[in-house]
Amino acid sequence: MGNQCPPRIAKKCVTCNSVTIRRSPALLMPFIAERVFGWTPTEITSDWGLRDIKLGHAYSICNTLKCDNCGLIFLDIRFDDSEMDALYAGYRGDEYNTLRDQYEPGYTANNQWRNEKGFTHIPIVESYIASHIRSPEKILDWGGDTGMNTPFKGRTATHHIFDISDKPPIEGARRVTKVEAKGNKYDLITLMHVLEHIPYPQNTLNDITDIMGRETVLYIELPYEDIIRLNPDPSSSPYRQKHHWHEHINFYTEPSIMSLLKSCGLLKIDLSILKISSQITSSGGGYIYSALCRLDE
Ligand SMILES: [Zn+2]
């Protein structure tokens, strides 16, 4: 059998591979639907002449999925590589912001801080990492954009970035390819606010473990989404309250993070929940998961 395309609609959990999945109807937010698929909202009127369809506004529908094994809540649609490119090329650039403002008025103004100051919680992250490992000398920031948010920036001998963005990196940082990255021995690889956007997080982690050596520590940071945090009892089925999907397509629980690490041959050093001041979750909350891990040998 040749290489198979990953399925368009997830049939199993993307972190623990369980097939015990629950479903609930939801909307794919119109900005994402237009940017990825070219689908725009429409209004069904009597002119359409549809006998069995109710009149009204029509948006792109999808399903919210919930894994009964690890609790991951996720969008059923899994974008392919070209669709991810369509969504993230020129991320938060002029064209992106114009379309987003059209559907979500005020978006650009409300997110200007991201471009200007970057994350404000990095000192908390640095303290967290420093409390578990010795000071890193060689860092790779996977998905690190310009390197503005890389922990310990300006204080390491090597600051490499792997990212689909083509923005020029900040002073002292250098963009590398996967092949170049593999030729380096990093003390620390950071993967911050990436895996909530990624259709197949195991693939990304497998790419990263390919680069890691025995001494390399991986720092993973993910939003602790409010719907997960405020519904700690998994039997309360918070997935039924998740009615819309935007950029974050995976809402992680602690068991889903642990399953993901295990399925990719990674061993936890620590997994903590940190409170930060940045609005980091999809509903504007300020809690993150911080995980440190290494290869399980
Ligand atoms: Zn699962």
- CATH-scheme architecture of the domain at 119-228 and 252-295: 3-Layer(aba) Sandwich
CATH class of the domain at 119-228 and 252-295: Alpha Beta
Q: What amount of the residues lies in strands?
A: 15-25%
What number is the mean pLDDT? 93
Structural class: alpha/beta
Radius of gyration: 20 Å
Order of helices and strands, N to C? Answer: EHEEEEHHHHHEEEHEHEHEEHEE
Number of helices: 10
The CATH superfamily label of the domain at 119-228 and 252-295 reads Vaccinia Virus protein VP39
Question: What is the makeup of the main sheet?
Answer: 7 strands, mixed
Bound molecules: zinc ion
Q: At the third CATH level, what is the topology name of the domain at 119-228 and 252-295? A: Rossmann fold
| Gap between N and C termini | 30 Å
Written description of the protein model:
The protein has helices spanning 30-37, 81-88, 94-103, 107-110, 112-116, 122-130, 178-182, 201-211, 226-229, 254-263; strands spanning 21-28, 42-44, 56-58, 61-67, 73-75, 138-142, 158-162, 174-175, 188-192, 217-223, 244-245, 250-251, 266-275, 287-295. With 297 residues, it is an alpha/beta fold. The strands form three sheets. A seven-stranded mixed sheet has the order 8-7-6-9-10-14-13, sandwiched between helices. It has a five-stranded mixed sheet with strand order 11-1-4-5-12. Strands 2-3 form a two-stranded antiparallel ribbon. Strand 9 (188-192), helix 8 and strand 10 (217-223) form a beta-alpha-beta unit. The protein binds zinc ion.
